Amino acid sequence: MALSSALLDQAVDQLATLPGIGRRTAMRLALDLLRRERHEVVRFSEAVRRLREDVMYCSECCNISDRPVCDICANPARDRSLICVVEDIRDVIAIENTRQFKGLYHVLGGVISPMDGIGPDDLHTKELLARIGNGGVAEVVLALGATLEGDTTSFFLHRKLHELGISVSMIARGISVGGDLDQVDEVTLGRSIADRKPYEQSVRR
Known about the structure:
By secondary structure, this protein is α/β, with parallel strands linked by helices. It has helices at residues 6-15, 23-35, 38-54, 71-74, 89-98, 125-133, 148-163, 186-194, 199-202, and strands at residues 56-57, 64-65, 79-86, 103-107, 139-142, 167-170, 197-198. The strands form two sheets. A five-stranded mixed sheet has the order 4-3-5-6-7. A two-stranded antiparallel ribbon has the order 1-2.
């Protein structure tokens, strides 16, 4: 559609690049920003700028953080012998909301997907194995989605961790096949964490 302002058109174009935002929604958002006080828009844009420029990855768990070591890894009350492996930060948030897990996390940044050209070396698997190699870890919980890619990644990690003599468990499958963790209700996810089983018992025969 032709707009009376090229600047408005540019703003709509950029907002429409966000996931789940169509051009109509982008137009509503742009017009809302235009109606706001100048200081509000400046605060909004500054928050987005700092998000992109200042957020970093935790040097220990690869989760996003405002500091070199995230608050979870820096918390002395967390059980450092227990690591939960997840796909991305949304899964960390989902599990934390259950208040059932007291260990640490390791964020892979994705799952193995040969169809998409994503292999183990494209994920934070080396960092995980390095953490295990430093000692002190007794159990690794695989909390990946109930998808083919999630199962492939779990199988790969179980094989690597088994070689290191680490106990490996999986969250209980109270989650529908093909589902993502961040879409599961907190009660179901919390029970899945609490009722985790050894990996060998979780593999479908």
